[in-house]
Amino acid sequence: MAINGTEYISTRGNADVLDFAGVTLTGLASDGGLYVPRHWPQFSTDEIAAMRGLSYVDLAARIMAPFTVGVLDEAELRSLCATAYGSFAHTAVTPLVQLDGQHWLLELFHGPTLAFKDVALQLLGQFFERFLSGTDTKLTIVGATSGDTGSAAIDAVAGRAQIEIFMLHPHNRVSDVQRRQMTTILAPNVHNIAIGGSFDDAQAMVKRMFNDKDVNGPLTLSAVNSINWARLMAQVVYYFYAALRLGGPERKVAFSVPTGNFGDVFAGYVAAQMGLPIERLIVATNINDILHRALSKGDYSVLSVTPTASPSMDIQVSSNFERLLFDLEGRVGATTGARMKWFEQMGKMVLSPEMRKNASLLTSARTDADQMSAAMRWAYGATDQIIDPHTAIALHAARNAGIRPDVPVVTLATAHPAKFPDAVENATGIRPALPARVAQLFDREERFDVLPGAYDAVRDYVLARATR
Ligand SMILES: Cc1ncc(COP(=O)(O)O)c(C=O)c1O
Ligand SMILES: N[C@@H](CCOP(=O)(O)O)C(=O)O
């Protein structure tokens, strides 16, 4: 089918070319790859400078409009963004907080479920509603979460008539607050499943369902994880928002990003491809450090996942790394497809010196438990900020990255500290309280099923319960 507007292609080069509505509803490409725009849209320095002073909603519509050509114009996008971000507790949506002369936090946790995922998922809920309306399609969402995507996605789609959601989380490996934010939503279209194993196991099962004709055929599957392009697109906006407030585009800004599935930091990479002057993107990992090993030594080999106090980053196989690999090797689907097939069989791959050179905008750092706690203590002692463990991992990396002192460094604050009260209390002695809007969490009834980490069990569960 000819596309009249922005075209999306698979990183593995062997799936239908789709428009924006198509990629939003499809999620994973049929060849197992991830959708990306055929070309990165570009803004000139003058165009970026002219965005200074726009509200978050206006900026979001301006930045995203080139990605939705032929499907949504800027005015339609603006209206969907106004609805999506109307539920945020801060008028700036993603406010900046200064820590010292060089360091800033970009607070991304003012949405309904207290994590950065709301920025994209509140909007994705609007896109789903818009693209399904007037059709008789019933969408079955299958998702995997290490804690935050699950609650944000459930909040975005609970009660929507044409959507049913099945969310897999690793049993006993998310915080109590994270679990309750998912399992206390009792809407009939929400199904929570705790599986034996890690987030990686859950994510692998989700991807397998997309390519299982016994599932994706009888059911129309879609994704809320960052394999869905719309998720990443919405995250590009806050890089522009922060940079414009710190002197961009005339002045370069660096970002430190707590990283697991490589979606958030890839959105920063996209912002740079679009013309935003970025000094550096720091890929901050916890001790599950495959991305640090890949970017610093070229070694992308899977080790087993170790549970940590930053559970949302307890990931080894980072979905969105495939999108970066596609760019680093010249955007040739057959090359990326062959590389990923090899990786799926062998559990490892090597990044050539040439690929690492092409990735020089990105540096990486690994932060261990003691360094994470020390960063939480520093933020509290020196700047009066209580930060969550994921943010602390990136802040530690930011303060040790050796960025020139005249370059502002923005650490992405990806979750509210009250989602991880034990880790925060252990480090700082302060137990952060849940904000009033979610304070009833521990009084509500929970509902979820526990399944073994076996594909057949999960597939059969979904097929038995999904309404068609
Ligand atoms: C609080 C928090 N920080 C950081 C991350 C890592 O982000 P990404 O998976 O986009 O790399 C996650 C999970 O995605 C998260 O929930
Ligand atoms: N940390 C995530 C893991 C899923 O990542 P996603 O960005 O691909 O949805 C989580 O909290 O669930």
TrEMBL record:
It holds the Pfam family PALP. The modification N6-(pyridoxal phosphate)lysine is found at residue 117. It catalyses: O-phospho-L-homoserine + H2O = L-threonine + phosphate. It comes from the Bacteria. Pathway: Amino-acid biosynthesis; L-threonine biosynthesis; L-threonine from L-aspartate: step 5/5. Keywords: Amino-acid biosynthesis, Lyase, Pyridoxal phosphate, Threonine biosynthesis. GO terms for biological process: threonine biosynthetic process. Belongs to the threonine synthase family. This is Threonine synthase.
